[in-house]
Specification:
The structure is a homodimer.
Chain A lengths: L3 E5 L4 H13 L2 E8 L7 H12 L2 E6 L1 H6 L30 H15 L4 E3 L15 H13 L6 E3 L7 H10 L4 H4 L15 H18 L1
Parallel strand pairs in A: 1-2, 1-4, 2-3, 4-5
């Protein structure tokens, strides 16, 4: 049976691959993006172009007033520098936006209910677990319990990449025909070109390199 | 030890009593209200005046763009009439805003984390259970699990009225010195005067009458 799914889409590698995956499954997909005052708001343009390419309905919702409440993260506070390195590094804690995933997933859950969707899809993956507790399996399971008990048992949460590495996602994305350079944006800095040094630039480059190596084998 | 608490404040009877209760406990309180495009936005003025009276820091956050996604409720859609009667009536399902409490509690949870608060307080009570699943004990327990697993174990959720009737709340409010007529707004219609017929007007009148009867005994 064809499922109707809300996909949270940032415009980065992971959620763009998730959108292509849902499209490939034949789901009726509604994509939802968030402007929460992130420096790298540029990612939203990529999200919009991807949806236009696939013919998917795209909604970007402005919750920048909420972002204003969530001080203390390098992603939303211009006074805090974006740290360089890997997600495992202690400095990456600076990129945690308090409760960000729960806020986005709660809003997306309400949108899914209002639109009569069966499920809500999120692109959290194992590479995020080190620094972001709201990407871990325990959070996703607890969130789904809360979402369902708060809403007469609906909708479900679909997180197919939960135990995948970012390289696994890159490989699937290439298989599904995504041109990551052209179609996605990751850099936290939000400049004209990717900085190449922040956590998400580093993780992205490594994942793409690993996926490319595997394809050459 | 003095706790630091975020209180979700609508400006109605229940959350105003909760705010007074926290103030009475000696908590350091931050009050948070939401403009989600509700017809009865007037309640926010009452919330602001109550905070000014108590000297509590008050923040009203505009999530009306989110309200625009949550169609299908009489509280946010001008095309759907507000039903009359009691919360137990089937027609009251029309006043359910999909996932409303989870959205507000998720944002308040992020705010609590950003402000270094110990807990998040919500005024859900037994009178809400019939029609609103996101006011039931199971939802509150599941939500707290998700909030904590997503954020390194913090903050907790304080819902002291969870098993109380609205009359119990009215009685406590009177004891704490609240003048409900002057200090709170409930009516869903959001007109100049309360309509007296919608679910929340009916429940409010009955609770105040019951509390007054008990005081005369």
């Amino acid at each position: 049976m064809r499922q109707k799914t809300v996909c949270i889409l940032s415009g980065g590698m992971d959620s763009t691959t998730l959108l292509y995956h849902l499209f490939d499954l034949g789901d009726e997909v509604l994509a939802l993006s968030f402007d929460y005052g992130q420096r790298h708001r540029k990612e939203l343009e990529y999200a919009g172009r991807t949806c236009a390419r696939l013919g998917v309905r795209h909604t970007a919702v402005d919750i920048s007033a909420v972002g204003g409440l969530l001080k203390g993260s390098a992603l939303t506070s211009s006074g805090i520098a974006v740290p360089h390195g890997h997600y495992e590094d202690e400095s990456m804690r600076l990129t945690v936006v308090p409760n960000r995933n729960m806020i986005m997933m709660a809003i997306a859950g309400g949108y899914a209910l209002a639109e009569g969707c069966d499920r809500l899809a999120v692109a959290v993956h194992a590479g995020d677990h080190a620094v972001y507790p709201d990407c871990r399996p325990q959070f996703i399971a607890d969130f789904e319990d809360a979402l369902r008990s708060g809403n007469y048992g609906q909708p479900s949460v679909y997180a197919p990449f939960l135990d995948w590495t970012k390289s696994d996602i890159a490989r699937l994305g290439v298989e599904l025909g995504i041109d990551f350079e052209r179609d996605t944006w990751s850099c936290y800095e939000g400049g004209e070109e990717p900085c190449g040094k922040c956590g998400t630039c580093v993780e992205r480059a490594e994942a793409l390199a690993a996926a490319a190596r595997e394809r050459q084998r």
